Amino acid sequence: MDKRQQVLSRAEKVFGDKGRAAAWAVQVKSQFGGMSALECAETEDGYLLVMETLAKVEHGFGA
Question: For residues 3 and 41, is the Cβ–Cβ distance under 8 A?
Fold first, then answer.
């Protein structure tokens, strides 16, 4: 599974819905330097940031 698929899979678990996960993953966010989660996850550091952000969301800290 590539990083994009891993992000989408994790987001689906966090948001509980494929549609919500996909919407979140393509939305441009300032914490990702003006990129979407999927764009940000193309680098190793970006991938780690996206996964950390999803963990925060899962534990009640907004994204």
Answer: yes
Q: pLDDT tens across 21-61, in order? A: 999 999 999 999 999 999 999 999 999 999 999 999 999 88
- Residue 35 phi/psi, 5° resolution? -115, 165
For 30, the domain range is: 3-57
Domain count for the chain = 1
CB-CB contact of 59 with 33 (8 Å): no
CA atoms of 34 and 27, how far apart (whole Å): 9
- In whole angstroms, what is the distance from residue 35 CA to residue 47 CA? 12
Q: Is residue 63 part of a domain?
A: no
